[in-house]
Structures are given as structure tokens and as C-alpha cells.
Amino acid sequence: ITAGEYAALWRPVQRQKFCPRKAPEAEVEQLRREVGDQIINQALLSREIVRRGVPPDTAKVQARLADYERQYGGSPMWARIQSERLPALTKELERQSSIERLATQVRAVEAPDEATAKAYYDAHPDRFTEPEQIRFSVILLKVDPSSPKAAWQKAREEAAAIRERIARGADFADLAKLHSSDVSAERGGDMGYVHRGMLPEGLAERLTTMTPLSVSDPVGVLEGVAILKLVDRKPAKLREFVQVRERAGQLWAREESERRWQAFLGELRRDAQVTVVDASRYPPAPAPASR
Question: pTM, whole model, 2 decimals?
């Protein structure tokens, strides 16, 4: 693998990952190793498809070339590629197709039996647990984020007055219908049950500290100023295996497929003599003597 081949892969990956920020050297070095592993794996896979005689999917290759023709047919660059590089492009697409076929063979996993799916379920309860759900109501006094401080202050004062009326016994739902700008106003501010992850972090934290039927003081949110009422809280609940049997099998199969692929790549690496040369550790070759 030449330095030029590595650079051709490294440059776009580096730009996508780091541009425009300057990354710590350790992070850059980690990405260099990952790119190196990727290009080494590709070289080993290219050798393996030849050894196994894995043919490309010719129909798919031709379809890809036809797609290029449709997208770039009117481009002078495409005309040049066709005249100068079409055989090389076709060969690369065939190589990729053969590797995809090999990957499909290696990754093939049959659906797990009941015991395997149950064992996966037992080992990963977090993946089958419904998160805590919170039901709350809201009175929202909308304020445009670009509004001056005076508008925000006015909304806070109005919210404080509404909160005082609630404290004196006024019905939260009636005040929501009267004052709230949220779409939930017609339902008395009822937002229904939501998972914590569906809420902005600040709002989720405030509701988490509240007790059922309690009402918050005015809270600044992105859309304005809000008053919250916690209606109910459902604790996290592990779903029964019979309810998630299919999902457990799918997750196991996905992970088993990836495990087999990584093990296969590991075997290719172990069976090959791979020497990685870090050119940055060596001085450049001396320039040839002038004659």
C-alpha cells in the first residue's frame, strides 16, 4: 500500500472529521490508525476474494455505471473518465461488489432459537426497559427569542401573577385554556405522557424534582416563560420477554453478524504479514547529488 493510496483516503476523512477545528494530536493519531486499519483490511479483502474466487454481481455493477451515466452524462469530466478511466472504474466497482458478496456470506446468521434470544434478553435488560414516563401540563406565555428584555420581563410578571392565582385555588386547566399559547391550551395544558429524553434537558430536570400534582414557579424556556404541573409519573418498566422476543432475536442477530465479520477480519490479519511504516518517524531520503 503506497503512501499515495493512504493519503487519498486520509485527506477526505480528515477534512470531514476535523475541519475547521484543530484536533488534539492524540485524536488525530487515533484516526490515522483507524484509516490505516481500513485500508489494510481492504487490501486483505481484495486478496481474499481472489483466493476464494468470489465473482462480482455484474448486474449491479452495470446498474451503478448506468447511474453514473444518468447523473454525469452531460459533464465533460464524465466523458473524459469514460475515455480514459472506464476500465479502471469498472474494475473497482467489481472489486467492491465481490467484497460486498463476501461480507454477505460471512455475516449470514440464522434466526436464534428461543434459548439464545432469552439469554440475550436476560443479559441486556436495559435494551428492553421502557424509560420513566412523565405526564405534565403547561401554561406557556410565548416570547420571541429575539425580543427585548422588557418583553421577557413582562412575560415573567404575567406568569408570576398566574402562578399566584393557582396558589390561591384557581384551576390550572382553566388558566391554561385562557392564557397559554401552546397547542395544548385547548386540553387545559395537558401534554400527556412523554419520556424524559423527549424533553429539553432543563425542563426534564425541573419535572424530575417535582412531586405529583405540584406546580412550578415560572420557568424560562426557549419559547418563552412556562408554568408546569406534574400530573403523574410512571417508573421505568422491564417489558416481558414474550413481548420483545422478536426484537431480542433481531438485536442478537445484528450483533452476532458484526462479531463474525470482525472475527473474520481478525483472522485475515493474523494470517497475513502486515508491516505498518510510520513515515513521520523517519528522515526524508537525501536528495540525489547534482551532476
Answer: 0.71
